[in-house]
Amino acid sequence: MSRLITYILGVFWITAVGAQPFTVTNYDIPEGMPSSEVYDIVEDRNGFLWFGTDNGVVRFDGQEMKILQVKDGLTDPVVFNFIEDDDGRLWFRTYSGKLCYLENGVIKPYEHNNLLAKVVGNGLIQFEHISKNKELWFTARNREGLIDSMGRLTVDTLDSEAQKKSLQVRIRDGKALVITATRWVSRLEQILINEKSFPVKIDSPAYISQVVADIYWRGKLYFSAYNDLFEYDNGKLRRPLISKDPIISLSTDRDGNFWVGYLKGGIARYSDTQFSDPWTLDFLKDKSVTKVHQDNSGGMWFSTIENGVYHVPNFTITHFKMPDLAKIKSVNSSNKHIIVGDKNGVVRFYDKKSATILHSKSFGYSVMAVFCDSRQNFWISGHAAIAVFDPSFRLKHVFENMNAGDFYETKDQSVWALGRLHLFQFDRDIKLAYEEIFYYNMFRNLVVRDSMILLGGRIGLHKMNIGTRRIQNLSEFENF
Questions:
Q1: Which end of the chain has fewer CB atoms surrounding its CB within 10 Å, N or C?
Q2: ∠ at Cα 79 (261, 29), nearest 5°?
Q3: Distance between CA atoms of 180 and 165, rounded to whole angstroms?
Q4: pTM, to two decimals
Q5: Is residue 454 classed exposed, middle or buried when 0-12, 13-18 and 19+ CB atoms within 10 A define those classes?
């Protein structure tokens, strides 16, 4: 019995563990981030991504990170979020309340920071709108304020006692300002929207989140309070979602989805306003997700408090995880499987839907090519033989002293195999029907069309007539 047949009869099938279904990249301190604690992501008009952290901001071009800190002009190392104004200036909201902005590549302090500090006190400033002339609308504790372009301040102070049990929302020119004067106590009893009261009863959870997120989605305003999500539309308020974890971020993407980020509860994506059937991501489980951003290329970015930023370039591109030492030689697919052969002689059969390894077969020698025909037979070629298995992985045929780097099936269910110096045709009964020897050429891949075969070489593309066996170089491809 040959060495090949010994390997084939002696191999065994292995059930393997699952894999992450898509590619995820984590950018944290080892990758150049100044901190693992990231609060916001924004993409500016020039295509740069910005990350706000508790130790400066990061400008990322997809390859290199540029870290900007107080020495570079920041008024505070802790930057909670960004907003780009109508003139393209990028503003930074800081922990201290002293604002700054990026203009023409230079970070500059806000001209009226001293005035702002008198109003903000020890509260956290929120801002929602900055016009072209730097007109700033902001909130801080129980105050809503406006600083115009001339530095004139207008402040509206809310009743602090009433505010303890209220959440107030002001809507101006289609933009929302959510005001929380002090840490809420045991119960939130009303929501005031443009002075209209909506009675609610929300008991404080064990862990009180002071973060109030708000966003517009499909023409409606959504905002959070503790673990609850509210929807406001045309004078009506409803509560479509009550979660088990505090809500700390609300985001949308260009595909029309709504993302809810939780404190130590990961992320949930919703596609309808009923907020049914949430889609979650395992790699963000137990993370505190502060922002979801979809970049200009369609990739998704997720900032977290614990582990920096995560990037998924495309959810529709499935990632099939291979062992670290595997070197892929050939990939093919069947109705149910993605078949991968590697240089170490292992063929792995992945489930198409879950991207998990269902079976693994070791041949003990390098696998040159794998292929599945229309009848779900598996063709596997090493350097010394081609083996064919049926859909149940039982061995059907072994063709010794043959090899193939590429396979192709025609409409009559013939399978063509291209070796180093040979071309083989197998009929639908898997019997050798044709063989051609190439004495002077070495080809890599093939396509069969009626009586014509296109053969790809290391350089050039060649056409072969099956009847005459004449090979013609195609001049258009001679340098490729």
A1: N
A2: 75
A3: 10
A4: 0.72
A5: middle
